[in-house]
Sequence to fold (1080 residues):
Amino acid sequence: MATTWRFALFLFVMLLGSGGLSLAIEKSGTTEPSGGHGVDPSSSPAPGHGDTGGGHGGGPITTLPIVTWKWLHVSTPYLVALWILVSWLCKFVIEANHHVTSVIPESALLICFGFILGGMIWGADLQQTFKLTPTVFFFYLLPQIILDAGYTMPNKLFFSNLGAILVYAIIGTCWNAASLGLSLWGCQKGGAMGDIDVGLLQYLLFGSLIAAVDPVAVIAVFEQVHVNEVLFILVFGESLLNDGVTVVLFNVFDAFVTLGGGQIDAVEIIKGIVSFFVVAFGGSLMGLVFGLLISLLTRWTKNIQIIEPGFVFVLGYLAYLTAEMLSLSAILSIVFCGVCCQKYINANMDENSVNTVRFAMKVLANGSETIIFVFLGISAIDKEIWVWNTGFILLTLLFIFVYRIIGVFLLTWILNKYRLVPIGWIDQVIMSYGGLRGAVAYGLAVMLDESKIKEKNLMISTTLIVVYFTVILQGITMKPLVTWLKVKRAKIAELTLIEKVQNKVFDHLLVAIEDISGQIGHNYMRDKWRNFEDKWMTGWLMKPSARKNRDNVFSVFHQLNLKDAMSYVAEGERRGSLEFVRNDNSYVDFKKKFGEEFSEVMPDIMADMRDDHSGVSDMRRDPVPSVSLNMHQQSMKGVRETEDVNSHHLLQQHLYKGRKQHRHRYSRSHFNVNVDEDEVQEIFQRTMRSRLESFKSAKMGVAPPSRKHKQKDQQQKMSNGKSLDKGKSNYSGDEEFDFSSEGEGASGYNASGHSFPMRVAYRPGAGIENPAFIPDLDPTSTQQIPPWLGEVELDSGTVAPSQRAQVRLPWTPSNLRRLAPLRTSTRSTDSFMLADTPVTQQWSDLPPPPTPPPPPYNSADGQK
Amino acid sequence: MGALQSASAHPEYGDLAEKTGFSIGKIRVLHKRFKQLSHNEETLRRDHLNDIPDLACNPIRAQIVEAFFDRRNYHQNGEGPVQEIGFEEFLVVMSHFRPPSLHMTEEQRENVRREKLRFLFNMHDTDNDGTITLEEYRHVVEELLSRSGALEKETAKSIADAAMLEVASISMGHMEPDEFYEGITFEHFLKLLHGFEIESKMNIHFLNMDTSTLCK
Fold:
């Protein structure tokens, strides 16, 4: 709480500062033409350059000034940056108070902050110096929000509800505009508003600008109430698409107003309708073209990974501007650009770039959303725009509310006749109530031409009232309403594999039934589209490598594996050792079983796994965070674990010291310049040395024998009742030190040494101090590698069942042949505790440099 | 096919409508399609369905076709496969995909849900022993992934294994080491797909309009 207030205080200080700065502007005689924030440099000459020119050649100087005050030189960008900072700090203060945001939505609070800030400016300047101008809003604040919305659009949901969304967005918006305009006009004729000079066309213009539901406001409010996905996509999709519609309507009526009532005949009206379709579909098409362009471009940007994410933003923005230039619908253009490119760029770009795009998109969108709301509040504190007309304002509010409800219910009633899953009446209520108006309406209202529309200020103030009313009041009441009506909420879906598989079964099933019954439905169309896309679009737009593992079920599987690997690493770190994660034996085993055909697929998959974990594993050279399949491998893990507890500490000591002394290089275009090959070698040598030390100490100590028995017991207990395991449990129980299956065990062992250098120390002939032990450089190692490993590179690995599942599962189905010997995490703790027994004993037998000690449980390998 | 056009010529339409919940008009359209598929015979065989060209690229075609010839899906107490089906059976199987009516009580909804899930379950449970064993499940996953080309059989297998392990951990909770999981029973199946709004998903929009000429 205290921090909150401190920051609030800080905010006010900032504000007073900027108020003072704005005073400075006043005094210098420059008027800020388009407000403090995001001033368009071309439209408003920066005062610093124009007038006094702060420093350079500002007048005859008599002596060399050491420091000069050049406020005017920087004032514009400075104010922009300052306002961004202030707006974001507002958000910061708001978000710090969770008990408030749980009741009042953030957007409403931001507007209220805007009121306060506006009041302060007013107090300082006696005039509103900072306002949200249409230029700033439409060119600098809106595009990124819409791009973000398009880019994160759930495509399947969106397109399967596209029909309904379009009906609401087009017909609904036209209905809102027309009904409002006509009703207000009727009321004026009836004398409800006193004496104002507004004609029918102007009413319609007003209606069209205020008809659209605002995406910014809707997202802000609906984000916090988690309604079910269909309802969300209906409201959200409508708000996105109807922006395009409302801008078109606005332009048409604006032109009509300019033409004047007399000149409008049937031809003009038809032209209006035609232009509506051209603008809307042309804009969407433009967006698609740019979306395809981005997708195509990211196919080839592998070598400029650093600026790869930038293309998305630049081309997205260009899509917006190009549409604007051709007077097509810019909003629709950027929406469809995002919708179209998301799939391909996510597949084409590097995972890091995708994350960068996601984050940057959110930063921009969220940032400008904040700024928009704050400035909506600030804009209100201005005496100039306020014209009060009770009748006009109240009637507008009433009509907007009522007609929205009527429109939604009417259209839903029609839609429900055709929908497979009808929209329930509760959802309809929420949809009507979610008709929030926002900054787009305000931006359009400010764009009105005062010379043509006498009552411009009345319209602006009415728009503002409507915005405040809907965003603040409806926003606040939305949550209780949703709770009260028991609206079906979005389920917090966990990504279960079986559900995904079932989903897929479903898709195919429905298509098949449609085929059999001879119906052409959604599924049929979707299937055809998917086939087309697979055949043509992905071939062109996607990298071949990305195409391979695009499968839905597989990606879930991949995600699960990643997640498990992560938690596995986390678990390992908790226990103090990372090394046990790198169990190469499972990988070896896997290879053995599935042969070489697998290696063609797996490197791709493992490659991106490696990228994911590059931050986690401190050595990129060992990229196999594989998850063990078999029990004996689990126990292998145990062995390694203990070995590595010691070495890990030592490694850490040596390794990080080495890093510190390392010179730091800088590169603008590469990340990994500071990973030095020599350094890696150095690390390994150090490690080896330290391992030798620990090895010597282990030779002295002998593990208590009682532990061994415990292990035996557990080994047998856990594999009870499984015929398959009987033999194995005997094996591992009694023949812990049996090296009979030397061939298998050793080969696996050495192979592991191949991909994990720590192991190499035990290879005969490879001296510990020998710098040639780096496996890649070691020519002898290949001889000991089994043939199936021959051409497999380090980054190949295994796909193993979800570790999470393993952990939860202390038993397995009898016919899970491969999974049968699986053990839970408890097992690995067991082996963790116990594993030093065999190892130390072996060590004590071995002379340094030791012969390869086959891991005790590898014997199970031979049995297979 | 002129005789098919009038409902009076087919008094059994009324019974079928009652039994399956389809309207007379939809039954008429479906009957026409049935005739088209069976080449104007009274019964439909597997070959007829396998001949549908659009179905050819469906990875789980075999299972779907089999579902039509499975007695368990006929609302009767029979089981086992049949060689050929009449229009009534065809319609009954189709009725599993009928969209639910607008206003349902919770109980009805639950019944619809169960019925649809049962159909799905039967599709997976090919040997009809009441459980989906790992082998059966693997088969499904393999077939599903068989179209994506890049993924090998072994990947499918390990995905199926992983899914099965997941299932086991969800449906059984903690188990003793010596227990083992035999397969998914129907009860577990219900539980697993709890969050899966099947009643609103497993639907086909049956049109009154005859579109069979458009899609062969």
